[in-house]
Amino acid sequence: MSSKANFSWSEIGSQNPTFSQIRTTIETPFYGNNVIKVTSLKEAYKLAVDSPGTVVTDMPVYRPEEIGLDAGSKVLLFNDGNVSGRAAAARKILGEPGVDKEDLRGKVVEAIYQSRSKLMYHAEVLIGLDPDFMVKAHLLIPEGEENILYSWMLNFQYITDEYMKMYKSSKPIANEADIYIFSDPQWSHSEHPMGLTFFDTDHNCAALLGMRYFGEHKKGTLTIAWAIANRNGYASCHGGQKRYNLADGKKYVAGVFGLSGSGKSTITHAQHGGKYDITVLHDDAFIISSEDGSSVALEPAYFDKTQDYPCGCDDNKFLVTVQNNGATRDEDGNVVLVTEDIRNGNGRAVKSKLWSPNRVDKFAEPVNAIFWLMKDPTLPPVLKLKGSSLASVMGATLATKRSSAERLAPGVDPNALVVEPYANPFRTYKLANDYTKFKSLFEDRNVECYILNTGDFMGKKVKPADTLGVLEAIVEGSATFKKWANFSDIEIFDWAGFVPNLEDPEYKIQLVERMKDRVRFVESREVEKGGFDALPADALEALKKVVAEASN
C-alpha cells in the first residue's frame, strides 16, 4: 500500500475527500519561494553540523555508509533548553469535542504567514518498510532547526532508489494522500505556553508550533501514520515485537505494549543470554494486519532513552544524534557525551538500525501473543487472559506510571498511576477502533494475551530477570497456568516470591479497587469528549465480571 502524492486536474477540488481546508492550508507553504528541498541524508547531516548550537562530538557514527552517511561522520548533540519531553496538553485533534477549528486554523494560517521571511527546509521520508504498507511524509521546518530535520530523516526511512522502487511498486491506499507536517519550533503564543500541535488526521496533516523536542516530530508523524493504518485494516501498535526462532524450527512472535519506562525496549531487544535466535521487528512502532496477522515495522531507527547507557557503553556506538545530554572531554581530549540523565531527565538519542543485529522490516508469520506491560502493584509478574473482551479491555485500561518523557501541565501529579489505552497516547481516532481490532486478533486469530507487571508487586520490585524468565517459560511452553481464585477468565503462573494472597484482606481490597479504577475509566469514556472514546458494552461487562469475582 502507498499514499498518493500527485493528482490529475479532474481530481483536484472540493469533490475529492483528500482536500480539506486544513490540509490545503498546511500543504501550500511547501511550494513557497523561501523553501529549499533537502534531498539526501548527507545534505541534512551537513546542515545540522553547521547549525548554531550543535555539538559535533568526536564519537564516530558506526558504519555510516550503511545508513546513508559519509565515512567519518560524527555523532551530533543538540539540546532544547528547558524543554526535554512531550506536551500532551498541547495536542489538539480536529473532530474531537471542544476543539475550535476556526480558532486553531487562524493560528496556523498566521504562523505560516510569519514563516515567509524565514528560509524553510522541505524533507521527505517513507513510513512503513514493506510494500504491504508505505506512506510518504513531508516536513517543512525553518532554518535553525536543522537538527530536528536531520533526526527526522534518520528516524524514518530517508529516500533511496531501492525504497522508492519499493514504494512505487506497492499498491496505492484508497483515498490516502501523503502526510504533510508544518513545523515552527520558534513560534510562541500567549494562549499556548506549552506550544500547539494541531492534527487533522482524517486528511493526513498537522501543524507543530512551538515544539522544540524532537519526540514531538517523531510521534506527531507516527500519529498520522497510525491513523492511516487503522483506516486500512491494521491494528496500530505503540510497542515492540520480536520473533523467537526456536531449535525445533518453530517460530514464536511476541508483541509487547508499554509506555516509556515500562521495559518494552528492554524486552524487545533482550537476547536472553544467547539462549535463543532472536529476530527484531521494532521496539516502538509497527502495525498488525487484521487479515493475516502479519506485522510491518514503520521506521528503521530507534529513538531511545540514554538514561541507562553510561559513557563507554557498547550500545552507544550505535548513536547517530543525541538530544538533551551533556558533553565533556575524555583523557585524550576528545569531545564525548555525558549520558545517564545527569544533565536532565529524558535524555534521548536516535540509534541506527544496526543496533539490533537481527532486524527485519516484516514478520510474515502471524503474531502468537500480545503482552500488556503494566505497572500496577496489585498484579503479579504475569497473568494470562482468556476471554477476548477481557483481553482487549485490559489493553484499553493499561495502567502505568508517568515517565520523564512527558512535560506535564501545572497541577498534574507526576507520581499518580494513570491509564493509557493500548500504551498509545498518540491515537487520534475513536478508542473503540483499537478495542475492536485487538479483540479480533484474540477472538478470530487465537492470539494469546498476557499481562506482565514490570513495576512492583505489593512493594516487591519485579526485576527484569523475573520478567524475562516468565517470558522464556511462555515461549518454551513450560509455563503452567492455572485458574486464579474465582476468576473465570484469568489464569496465573506461580512465580516464587510473587504469589498473590487473596486471603489477605488488605491485598484483596487493593486488587478490587484497582479493577474498579478500570471500570470507572471505561464508564468515564461515555461522557468525556462527548463519548468520542466510548467502548462497546461487552468491554465494561468483562471488567465488572472481574470485580464481582474478586469481591467474592
Your description of this structure?
The protein has 12 helices and 32 strands. The chain has 552 residues and is of the alpha+beta class. Among the domains are: 190 residues, Phosphoenolpyruvate Carboxykinase, domain 1 (3-Layer(aba) Sandwich); 188 residues, Phosphoenolpyruvate Carboxykinase, domain 3, CATH 3.90.228. Strands 13, 14, 15, 16, 17, 23, 24, 25, 28, 31 and 32 form an 11-stranded mixed β-sheet that branches. A hairpin with a 6-residue loop joins strand 31 and strand 32. The termini are far apart. 48% of the residues are buried. The model has no long low-confidence stretch (mean pLDDT 92).
Q: Features of this protein?
A:
single chain, 552 residues, eight-stranded mixed β-sheet, 12 helices, Phosphoenolpyruvate Carboxykinase, domain 3, 28% strand, globular, 26% helix
